[in-house]
Amino acid sequence: MTTTNGTTSPSTGTGTGTAQKRTDPGAVEGDFYAVKDLLDPEERQILDRVRAFLDAEVRPLANEQWADATTPVHLAAGLADLGITGSAYHGYGCPGFSNLLAGLLTMEMGRVDASFATFFGVHSGLALGSVMLTGSDEQRRRWLPDLLAWRRIGAFALTEPDVGSGAAGGLTTTARREGDTWILDGRKKWIGNGTFADLIVVWARDVADGQVKGFVVDKSNHGDDRVPGFTATKIEGKVSLRGVQNALIELDGVRVPEADRLQNAHTFKDVARVLKTTRGGVAWNALGCSIGAYEAARRYAVEREQFGRPIARFQIVQDNLARMLANITASQGLLVRMAQLQDEHRLSDPQASVAKMFCTTAARETVQLAREVFGGNGILVDHDIARFWADAEALYSYEGTRDMQALIVGRAATGHSAFV
Where is this region: Disordered (predicted)? Predict the structure, then answer.
């Protein structure tokens, strides 16, 4: 198909074979304001390379793995070859990308499979990020090479069965020091990658001073990888992010050497430093989920016929698509500015919170609108939209619920804390 400027543009077929010219201004169908054009040529090549990997390796298996509740751990070597792990961190072998490129990489993953984006984010953002931000120089040199190369996979254990949003003051997992060894006791829940991770960052309260500290349970310290007192059990029955292996972890007298205590993690404020960065990552994942849902709905609307015409010609369907694009574009604008603030080292906790709050809320509405376009077919995993629709629910809640983010923003707005 030839456009008005003489260039060739791909076509999307309808159920009757009639060609429909694409009018999307960006290379990503949901990138209505062409945010990708903000990248320099080298960054665009990186993004395109990752997108090709996702389309070739992740997309074909996404629905099957979601239905089977399995994680594509076999793609670890491919992720290592992409060179994007630890994307926005500098030094120690990290690529040092701009935060905009790092965010768009997460968006591309979420656009294909939010579970895959979470699998990557837990390893690269939460686990690797904990070592990078709160570890010593020696610990970074010891652990980061294996994490960057995906020779060993990381997990991040903060949430507990009875403590989610109240982790700052209510964490019950304890750490007791005996000489050069720490003894960890407690339980953790919803720990992504927890069933197969090699390095598990565990946050526990020091019984001596009451402060939250970080510890790395390193399975390589044990010949058979079986850590005495450490048990990780896969959580079954999830209806969201089924491609993520969440674990219930039992810590019964787990011994961690002082050398494996994160040396620059002294209070919960240090946990918050990690979460501020990854909270933005969840917002980018939610944006990707929104784009994936919109693109699926748009394709379906053009191809699906009712009453002798494509449903894309009906006003209600077009209204739904327009509202989806508006949500996506508003989220993109917010996240682009967030990335700029991150690059300038000026992003505050409330600013990160408003991004997570807004983008995940917008995603929840967007996937619902997309679901409506599909009618009865929308409940079938084969059409992709059921997966996006369900996954948005977890993005809305994890790493701080919408309500908790709202209270963080409200405290900044008013100067008064509404936390109990």
Answer: 1-26
Residue with tokens 């510890």: 215
CATH number at residue 216: 2.40.110.10
244 lies in the same domain as 279: no
Backbone angles phi, psi at 162, to 5 degrees: -115, 5
> What is the model's pTM?
0.91
Report the helix count and the strand count for the chain, using DSSP H and E: 13, 13
Count of structural domains within the chain: 3
CATH number of the domain where residue 103 is located: 1.10.540.10
Domain coverage including residue 85: 37-148
Half-sphere exposure of 20 (CA within 13 A, CB side): 19
Report pLDDT digits (tens) over 194-245: 999 999 999 999 999 999 999 999 998 876 778 999 999 999 999 999 999 9
What is the C-alpha separation between 353 and 53, in angstroms, rounded? 31
Q: How many CA atoms lie within 13 A of 80 on its CB side?
A: 15
Q: Quick check: 168 pLDDT over 90?
A: no
Same domain, 42 and 91: yes
Interhelix angle 268-303/99-112, nearest 10 degrees: 50
